[in-house]
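To close the chapter, one final illustration. This time we ask the reader to focus less on the individual chains and more on the assembly as a whole: which components sit near each other, and how the overall shape emerges from the parts.
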Amino acid sequence: MKFLIVEDEEGLRKSIDQYLTAEGNICDWASSYEQGYQKLSLYDYDCVLLDLTLPDGEGLQLLKYLKKVNKSDGVLIISARNSLDQKIAGLSMGADDYLIKPFHLSELYARIMAIVRRRNFNGNSLVQFNELEIDTISKELKVNNKLVYLTRKEFDLLLYFVTNKNKVISKSAAVVHIWGDEADMADSFDFIYTHIKNVRKKLTDAGCKDYFQSVYGIGYKFCET
Amino acid sequence: MKLFSSYNRILSVITLSGLLVIGFLFYQTLGQYLNRQMEDHLYEELLEVRDFAHVKNILPSPDGFDDVIVEYKKIKKLEDQRKFFADTNFYNPKKKHKESGRYLMTQMVLNGQPYELKIIASKFEREEQIKSIVLIILLPVIVLLLILWLVNRVLIKKMWIPFRQILTNIKAFNINQEEVFKPIETNIDEFKELNKAVLDVSLKVKSDYKEIKLFTENASHEMMTPLAVINSKLDTMLQSNTLNKEESEILADLYKATSKLTKLNQSLLLLVKIDNNQLQDKEKIDLEALLYERINYFQDFIQKRNLNVNTEISKLSIYANRSMVEMLINNLFSNAIRHNYVGGFIKIVLTPSSLLFSNTSTQARLDPVKIFERFYKDNASEGTGLGLAILKQVCLRQSYTLAYEYQEGQHYFKIEFNNPS
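The assembled structure is written out below.
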């Protein structure tokens, strides 16, 4: 897949770039409104990561341009502006999602993939991983074509890990993904452990291989080996 | 007290006492003047008595005069020839009743014999005269004062109309709305000045407010971006497969610190926003539904600590800012859960006028004054120390009453909705 990162902060841009390209995606980047404008008018992208505050302009103008020329690129706004009216402004102008800085890269990727899936609606709502088949719309999980029941949180967690397969996901990133920013209580990290334990058990009971790997108590990784 | 009534009170005290003093002095002077006139008259009568005795060699009869009464009394010898004037009450034989009068008393030799002589004249007519004079003069004065007072009242009321208008406009002025303070039309210099001053202040406040809003946004952006960089770099480091246990622990600590910093930053910005009244859009919120939804949201945490949640929730919808009310309930919930012990309990009571959260806690009584201060927290707390400050600020903005109490090992946080609708 091809992404465009419009972000003037070099450090952040590089990290995002690195994280996204690892799985065979292609990343373009622009560090200013002008560059962003050029790239957007020349190429098509599966998803555009758009920072709102650019050194020479307003990110929302790029969004406006995209809508004006009827491009179907998915747009994910990444901004530090967290006021409600900003979010509403962005979303009502046609952005697909709004992620507030700072975020975890795994969360960013999960959101991007959600946008891409939503955009390519026909038949692409299925996420496949070996014997796992996840229907992101009906929220159903099949293992070897057999339906496995997961709770809503367990389902979200599994989808999150599958989307970020082969990546280490920190506990705090998983907590934020499940409960949002508000649930930063000390023992919320333990719940992740409980939930993952439950998912693992349900999967192995259904005859699935155990793909979860624990990483030194800092997080988990969902991978083949 | 209103300015006008205060002014009126002072004015009436001065006018009344002035009127009394003037009336008294006037009455006294007039009385004295009339007395002197009478004394002249009495003296003339005395001369007449003497002439009469001198010419006819007999004493005039006591009631021989038209309007005076003359009394004689034989005395041994002349002692005091001075003339005394004084007031008295006497019996008037013509009118046949007692009345007040003035007399002249002296001793003199009549027909070769010493007599004590007393000539009395009635004061009745003079008194009547004084009364009418005083009335004639005082009544118009009082009427004039009354008219003045009325005119004053009407005039002042009219003159203050621009002031009232300015006041109404100031009250209507809302910092969050686009329209500025509405100046009024007047040609009174003072009000023009006031008008201008208020207009200037309102414009200044507006621009300051805009600046703060801008600052808030900029600060948010400027602080969040570096945090985003740190976070993303940590995520990148996490992906390297070379981390050993020690490094992992360092990374975990760094994650914790950044997330705390992020949370702190967000809370501070939120406080600034609430302080500046930036969260103003109000809507109808079904508190009952919101509470149940939040209980559901916090279910994991409640179960994990084996907390016993007891609810008595009645129907209540309030008209308020949604994000503020959500914050309120989130903060109450996470406090009640965070500071609770395993197996403790939480009670939530929603009545048509108030919301009460009570919970058991590992902590004893908290200082009811200090707990709502920013950054007040005990060392064991994992929070930012801003949760309760936000709670208080939200209540202040929505004019709810927030109270903390501690009873029998339980902490009570009670919010009274003073304006439920």
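Chain A is about 45% helix and 25% strand. The longest helix of chain A spans residues 188-205. With these observations in hand, you are ready for the problems at the end of the chapter.
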